[in-house]
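Dear Dr. L.,

I hope this message finds you well. Following up on our conversation about the binding site, I have prepared a predicted three-dimensional model of the protein together with cytidine-5'-monophosphate. For your records, I am including the exact sequence and ligand specification that went into the calculation, followed by the structure tokens. Please feel free to forward this to your student if that is useful.
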Amino acid sequence: MVRRRQLYEGKAKILFEGPTPGLLVQYFKDDATAGNGTKKGVIAGKGVLNNRISEYLMTGIEELGIPTHFVKTLNMREQLVKEVEIIPLEVVVRNIAAGSLAKRFGLEEGTRLPRPLLEYYYKNDDLNDPLVSEEHILAFEWATSDELNDIYTYALRINDFLSGVFRGSGVLLVDFKLEFGRHYEEDEKRVILADEISPDNCRLWDMKTSEKLDKDRFRRDLGQVEQAYQEVAKRLGVLPEF
Ligand code: C5P
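The resulting structure of the complex is given below.
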């Protein structure tokens, strides 16, 4: 077996050098962390499920005409992705108040927001990913104004698309986090969607029972974590055969 060079290890994924320049292999781990790494655990089979779920959703997004880093699935835990220079922002889109938004503004979890709310957080573990404004992003040159325009437009279109996909599966898309990067191809630079879209970075509630089907089950010790991830894959019709 060829030993691939590991380029980066994150909390839930590892990036390896790809077969040709400009391509990487993204490996999905079962490891789970919460509270910026203060809580650690393993969700058995999570990597396999997130690989499938993210493949499915990224493919749909690509079909909308929004560029993504996803190229193809290689095996149960790995996908080939385009190399990007990550833009150090966590882009959160919210439809319903939950988590840190509910806490910050004293809202009851489950309150529908009058319109989708887009927030930016500066991706920096040492600082606990602080909430930032567009002004911070431009002043500190984390992204240009053109890039930020793309990110804003893409994020809202992705929200429409994902909300519809999940609604069709009886699931409410409460909120989610996206990451974007700069991809260079033939002297052209463009913003593309990177990272993953899975129950690790979305809040997903059953439309009938409001049961949580996402990583909040791990964060809040609600139990049945593996089952929740499986349920999402099953509802989307992408549950792999083990
Ligand atoms: O915690 P908070 O309410 O700000 O999270 C909003 C959304 O962003 C949730 O869906 C959560 O899963 C996601 N998120 C994430 N990674 C982070 C912070 C939040 O995927 N570091």
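In brief: Residues 90, 92, 98-101, 129, 175-177, 201-203, 215 surround cytidine-5'-monophosphate (CB under 6 Å).

With kind regards,
A. P.
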